[in-house]
Amino acid sequence: MSDSVNAMTEHPPVSDWVHDFDHTDPRWTENPFPIWDELRAECPVVHTKRFLGCYLPTTYQAVKEIAYDTEHFSSRRVVVRDMRPEITASAPPITSDPPEHKPAKQFLLPPFTPDAMKKLEPRVRAICNELIDEFIADGKCDAAARYTRHIPVRAIAHMLGIPEQDGDLFIKWIHEILELGIKDDDALMRAVREMTGYFAAQLEQRKQQPTDDLISTLMNARDKDGQPLSDNHVLGSLRLLLIAGIDTTWSALGSSLWHLAKTPADRQRLIAEPELMPTAIEELLRAYAPVTMAREVMKETVISGCPVKPGNMVLLSFPAANRDPAVFPDADKVLIDRKENRHAAFGLGIHRCVGSNLARMEMTVAIEEWLKRIPDFRLDPAGRVSWSEGTVRGPRQLPMLFGNAG
Amino acid sequence: MSGKLRVRVDQDKCQGHARCKSLAPELFDLDDFGNAHEVGDGTVPAGLEDKAWLAHSNCPEIAIDVTEE
Ligand code: HEM
Ligand code: SF4
Questions:
Q1: How many other β-carbons are positioned within 10 Å of the β-carbon of residue A351?
Q2: Pair type for strands A399-402 and B36-38
Q3: Is residue A349 within 8 angstroms of chain B, CB to CB?
Q4: Pick from B34, B60, B61: which is nearest to A357 by CB?
Q5: Does the CB atom of residue B23 touch ligand 2 within 6 A?
Q6: Can you list the domains of chain A with their CATH numbers?
Q7: For chain B, what is the domain count?
Q8: Most buried residue, A191, A296, B22, B55, by CB count within 10 Å?
Q9: What integer is the mean pLDDT of A147-171?
């Protein structure tokens, strides 16, 4: 084996968060909220030399300015990593800038409208109950491994028209891309290749035998000149739907159950007043927004009074924006009846999450079904909750006890 | 007391978060791409004023104008 420059690099621990932040530091992974508060009090945009140079906007206003400014900030790299290899695999529309962005996004939108999600809802409800059936008699479970992880995978597999059991493959690829890939380029490229091969076979099958699932819908889509999309374009979009749709929803669901497990008052109130579910879901999305995106600085500019220079990346922290007390009173409290909530969990501006209606439906249904069948639950004091590192934050182990068990 | 309210969605700002439609389905509708427009001419029927303001204060893109006539 050649000694690869891409071998995993260890990061030295952070001692000065304001000038040397690192979103892969174990303290950030464990509990980022006090770090963001400290940085926000210092400056709306902080910088680190790590990751070959990277800014972090800490206020809602600074995050919004950057998200709206596609002239100075490009989406061509959407993950902050140790290296900046040449751009090979793009994933429109998430890696697109105007004017390519809009046409690339447009044909993904109709399958994900709220009405389309209503049709999918009964299947998602059934998936949740099938999962609960598997562990409820044990009186306990790791909710991240047995419940929240499988819901988004099975839902998207169902939409795409592929076997729900193939979900385990998706989970592996996404782990290699989103978590290992931050520091290990080989793992990332291998996963992308495997995923592309899998979906290329699905396209071939449908060329022989058309179906009426989401894969066929994308294959039949036409661009504005009436031309079908190339296989490469369809494959890129399918990769994107998996990468963007699975860990994100897994994380948001896991954080929500984690909150309800350790906050009996909210849990009981939600059971007694189910009409609070919509505001509760929005509030859980605000408080535990899982997704931090990235941009690359293309031209020098000023954001919230801070100079920003090309050659650097930006860690676009929607989660930190959502904790800004200038926009959200009691930003550090979870108020499940919060009335005014312009949270940015699904992004701001042209890259608004394509799957936001799907994710909201999955969260609502998964929490409703869980509360119906397991109204009383708590974190298992004998276990340990662990959080994912990097771009998408959520519980990866979530040991729970039900009722009076334990 | 104040007059009638009217809502209007700024199509250039709307990004289809669909918060308005879920909070005030009587006042907003979505197109095939999930972007919003006001129902009819945007006039808010009596009794729905709170919903109009709620939609306004939950739209992440600040795309909803509420005006008093
Ligand atoms: C709770 C779950 C989810 C969260 C918090 C979330 C969050 C986000 C965020 C913040 C963005 C903006 C990216 C940017 O500004 O660069 C985004 C984009 C995107 N998301 Fe999600 N997402 C979730 C679930 C999903 C699901 C279920 C799907 C689809 C199956 C999906 C598909 C996409 C796509 C395709 C984009 C790119 C949109 C564009 O670039 O125009 N997401 N998501
Ligand atoms: S909430 Fe705002 S951005 Fe979302 S659909 Fe309504 S008007 Fe558009």
A1: 23
A2: unpaired
A3: yes
A4: B34
A5: no
A6: 14-402 (1.10.630.10)
A7: 1
A8: B55
A9: 93
